[in-house]
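Margin note: ligand = NAP.
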Amino acid sequence: MSTSDLPRDLHAVAVIGLGGMGAALARAFVAAGHETAVWNRTRSKVDELVEAGAHGYGSAAEAVASSRTTVICVSDYDTVKAILGDIDDFGGRSLINLTSGTSADADKLAEWSAARGARYLDGAILDEPSAIGADGASTVLYSGDRSSFQDDEGLLKALGSGATFLGTDPKQASLFDTVALTMGWSVLNGYLQSAALLRARGIDPQEAVATMVETTTMVAGWIPRYAAQLEDEQYDVLDSSIAGYHAAMGNVVREGDAAGVDVSIPSAWRSLAGRAVVAGDGDLGYGGMIEHFRRDGAGRGH
Ligand code: NAP
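Resulting structure:
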């Protein structure tokens, strides 16, 4: 089944959920000239989109039936199922879920959708609502039904040029979302930890912004080298050995502790690296820590 089997007079897309993100998605579709149906639990948000040029519907089921493709973006996956639960047959329409969740959520919803005749595409939005739109480069990652992505790629470009299909496993977009969040929060928490230390010592964190950006950029540049090591499972020392970093982490923890800032995050890095040293992996390059991020990881030294 493809969208070409559906009646020709359907709207291009129905957007279900008009919160901060859903409204931005619907506005972007309207702005790109796509006929857009909308539904939201709170009616006032539907009225705002109708003023902007969308077609408002009184129920999610009606909005879905009116359109070739459905994009849903609400608080969580349980809410997705609750909203769409009355629809027994999607008739081969694409269901594109841009709600954030885990890969297990995505897998279950893919099964649930297939049982109701929907072609399921899971998506992860890596940008904020203000970045959504055809003029921007906002990134939305998709995985799941390939024909659904191919049929709707033009439509999805209305959300930003970075519409990327990762593969047919519906779990992949959520996993990449977790990767993006893990990387982002690691950098932001590193910044805030550093700024708290400087403030505690009476130094304006502004003075260190150049150092922070330079270090973050430098470390980002190391990732491909680490990735190559992980692939070969060869952990020669690149920037430092695990033991070398473990010792330096002790300085970070002591400096923060002495200044009276919370050191729970650097203490966690240090304890993980310490475990690797105890396991006999201290001489490996820092990439060897991958063995110790596995819950069952005994390391190379054992
Ligand atoms: P939001 O502003 O809080 O909107 C939540 C939406 O879910 C609203 O449309 C709300 O309807 C609806 N909803 C919640 N519970 C419901 C229920 N029981 N029945 C029916 N509708 C219900 O959230 P958002 O910022 O749009 O985020 C939506 C999704 O996008 C989340 O998964 C979020 O993680 C993801 N996301 C957001 C951003 C961002 O920067 N905002 C970025 C990337 C990804 P009402 O209007 O009636 O309350």
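Strands lie at 11-16, 36-39, 55-56, 67-72, 94-97, 119-125, 139-144, 162-167.
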